Task: inverse folding
């Protein structure tokens, strides 16, 4: 695996300068690697992982289970892409099991999400049904525990 | 009567035992919350959750009792399987494996079981802080064998032969070595094994850092021909599985030796804590991926810190195992204790003076890379500043030393 990518996935939140430092590379080289990863479509973007509690004052999240009827040509892909393109949609996955698409949406409030479901999603030709679940509380976000574990204060700073 | 008068009750061999150099240093560091510590001798990772969860479940089930002195049979079976797979060692769970409270206990009871007063115990040095005191506590005589930076602190069989004297009975080995990261490859171990057989030594092989070997395969001396009958293999959960606080170790060896250790263990310790035993069973059965993940991290950090130390003008070999760099500070003309003390006071980085690990550690410091990158980078930057100060003070030209990066 690309060492720059590997370091990012480790999740230590290093700056590009720090990455260059620990990889014993030039900063320019790290930036070149990142540009290449973007160009290859491996690295889609660069966003911080935020605590959803911090966002919750003006954002609500919902998971919507969507059943769709596949089309003769294009299967689920065309529908899924169409849905994914709405700006409210943060993630969209084709699922096995009781429904077809898992759509994760965010909006400023509950009403906005309701409006999105009724006005946009449910009215799409090919959407058979939707079931909307609102997120109440987050415990882990993209691999980061919200209740962080700290080394106890009495862990010895020097030990044999 | 003052408190000090109570001192007269303390046994002579304990009263004269030196305090651990680490403890003295710890007292200073404890006063400095802003210091970055590279002095930590344990993993910075928290025990993987599935292992902790197993301990919690055991507690919920009411597993709060003593166990068989030797440890739970399920654990001994897991140990047998684990050492078979990873060390190519075959031991019977019934009478060749004993679980202990950390390797520290295993080493202590092994010495108590094997050493008659006056018997001589050889070990390579610099070494873990407890070896010499443990020998003293069993009224044995410690015979340190020096290892050198030139040799990457691997034990030189010739040095071993040179240090030998009549009355030597036990040889303690620790590869990879704390504090030097020294390892012994197969050809070297074969020579050591041959020597042990010639001199009829019993070997205590403390392999607590074995899984954290970054290059080459780790070979246990117990797996070499003719060594099984004279070796007690000592291992535990602390380092590879990040389970220091669980205090769980184990000893594997021929039944008569394990039985002798068992006798000591049953009277002094009874058994290792049951929750730790359950957690260890889970770790040995399902924790290998965690070990690999953590090892990879140590490996990356090692490469960084060694490169940085060398660039800064602190000659440092690349340790092939464990999580300590052991750079030489001799170019800066300060004894290692003074170097470490001044570095801590002037630039707030804690490293452990090499002399804490025996006189052979003079001129070196131990810097643990069992901490996150941000801390390691900052610590290296600070060390760079400290070296600038020393160089100016002593008029040393730091040829080739890369300028410090400055803290981010």
Result:
């Amino acid at each position: 695996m690309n060492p720059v990518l590997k370091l990012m996935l480790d999740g230590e939140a290093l700056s590009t300068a720090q990455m260059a430092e620990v990889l014993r590379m030039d900063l320019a080289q790290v930036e070149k690697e990142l540009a290449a990863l973007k160009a290859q479509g491996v690295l889609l973007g660069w966003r911080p992982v935020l605590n959803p509690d911090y966002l919750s004052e003006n954002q609500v999240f919902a998971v919507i289970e969507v059943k769709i009827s596949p089309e003769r040509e294009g299967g689920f892909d065309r529908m899924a892409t169409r849905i994914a393109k709405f700006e409210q949609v943060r993630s969209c996955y084709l699922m096995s099991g009781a429904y077809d698409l898992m759509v994760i949406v965010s909006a400023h409030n509950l009403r906005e999400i309701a409006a999105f479901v009724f006005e946009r999603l449910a009215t799409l030709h090919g959407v058979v049904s939707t079931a909307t679940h609102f997120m109440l509380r987050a415990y882990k976000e993209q691999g980061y525990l919200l209740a962080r574990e700290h080394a106890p204060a009495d862990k010895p700073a020097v030990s044999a | 009567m003052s408190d000090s008068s109570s001192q007269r009750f303390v046994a002579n061999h304990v009263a004269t035992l030196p305090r651990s150099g680490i403890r003295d240093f710890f007292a200073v560091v404890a006063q400095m919350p802003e210091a970055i510590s590279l002095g930590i001798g344990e993993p910075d990772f928290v025990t993987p959750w599935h292992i902790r969860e197993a301990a919690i479940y055991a507690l919920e089930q009411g597993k709060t009792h003593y166990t068989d002195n030797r440890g739970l049979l399920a654990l001994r079976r897991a140990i047998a399987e684990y050492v078979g797979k990873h060390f190519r060692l075959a031991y019977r769970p019934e009478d060749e494996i004993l679980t202990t409270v950390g390797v520290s206990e295993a080493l202590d009871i092994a010495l108590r079981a094997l050493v008659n007063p006056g018997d001589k115990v050889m070990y390579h040095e610099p070494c873990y802080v407890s070896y010499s005191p443990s020998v003293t506590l069993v009224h044995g005589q410690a015979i340190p064998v020096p290892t050198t930076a030139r040799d990457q602190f691997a034990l030189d069989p010739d040095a071993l032969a040179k240090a030998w004297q009549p009355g030597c009975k036990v040889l303690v080995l620790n590869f990879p070595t704390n504090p030097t990261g020294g390892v012994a490859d197969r050809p070297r171990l074969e020579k050591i094994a041959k020597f042990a057989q010639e001199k009829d030594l019993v070997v205590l092989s403390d392999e607590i850092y074995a899984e954290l070997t970054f290059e080459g395969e780790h070979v246990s001396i117990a797996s070499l021909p003719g060594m099984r009958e004279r070796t007690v293999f000592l291992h535990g959960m602390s380092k590879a599985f990040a389970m220091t606080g669980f205090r769980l170790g184990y000893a594997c060896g021929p039944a008569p030796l394990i039985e002798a250790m068992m006798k000591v263990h049953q009277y002094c310790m009874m058994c290792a804590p049951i929750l730790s035993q359950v957690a260890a069973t889970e770790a040995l059965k399902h924790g290998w991926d965690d070990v690999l993940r953590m090892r990879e991290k140590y490996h990356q950090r090692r490469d960084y810190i060694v490169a940085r130390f060398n660039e800064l003008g602190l000659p440092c070999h690349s340790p092939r195992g464990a999580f300590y760099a052991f750079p030489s500070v001799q170019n800066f003309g300060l004894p290692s204790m003074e170097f470490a003390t001044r570095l801590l006071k002037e630039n707030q980085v804690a490293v452990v003076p090499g002399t804490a690990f025996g006189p052979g550690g003079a001129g070196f410091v131990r810097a643990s890379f069992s901490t996150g990158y941000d801390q390691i980078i900052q610590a290296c930057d600070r060390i760079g500043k400290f070296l600038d100060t020393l160089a100016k003070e002593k008029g040393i030209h730091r040829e080739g030393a890369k300028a410090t990066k400055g803290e981010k």
About this structure: Residues 27-39 of chain A form the longest helix (13 residues). The interface with chain B takes residues 10, 12, 14-15, 17-18, 21-22, 24, 149, 151, 155-160 of chain A (CB under 8 Å). The radius of gyration of chain A is 21 Å.
